[in-house]
Amino acid sequence: MRGGAAGPSCLEANDWICGEYLRTRSQELVDATVQHLGITAVSVVLGLLVAFPLALVARRWRGAAGPVLGLTTVLYTVPSLAMFALLTPVFGVSAAVVVTGLVLYSLTILVRNILAGLQAVPAEVREAARGMGYGPARLLYEVELPLALPALVAGLRIATVSTVAMTTIGSVVGYGGLGNLIADGMAGFFKAEVLTASVLCVLLALLADLLLLGLQRLLTPWTRVQGRAKAGARRGARTAKAVG
User: According to CATH, what is the number of the domain 27-242?
Assistant: First the structure.
């Protein structure tokens, strides 16, 4: 038998990287991650549902574009702690405070990108569709929206990554997902808890961004064809120049 007492565990030593923490607090980590994902997903979906009609209003009536974009920008400048404090008397201490705040923050990104995507649709494309008998609704959903998808998804990616990060601030009302663990860990200087929750938050943001990028490539196959065509044209031009 080996003599001597075993050294302190990583939990007792309060190490930054601790496998024992992962084993003993796995359910706590799973619960926090699920809450984080749920708040993020609901906030982004609701933000998109609110931003889309606002972008349509801003495009339809030019006089409304300034107020709509201005209002969403003002909302984005409100500090998150102040936003949650203002919403608490309305919703109480609940997840609705965090979700509502995150929805309001996402609007400036989503409205601007949706509007930019719709405005970038060539006028001749719209005219051709109208000449083929497309009405306003069919023109929007079958012509304009597909062509605006790259800009829309780009905004959705930014909004989603921002929402993943800002969900952590919901810990001030007890609904911050992984932010709750980060706040608790910082309060007690529990290194493993702070680092693990922070790394999981970063991984969630990266995973969400990659998933949305894959969705964009799946929904817009013509952009890859155009990219290959342009690359081929550039190679042909260089070859012709070299031969000449």
Answer: 1.10.3720.10
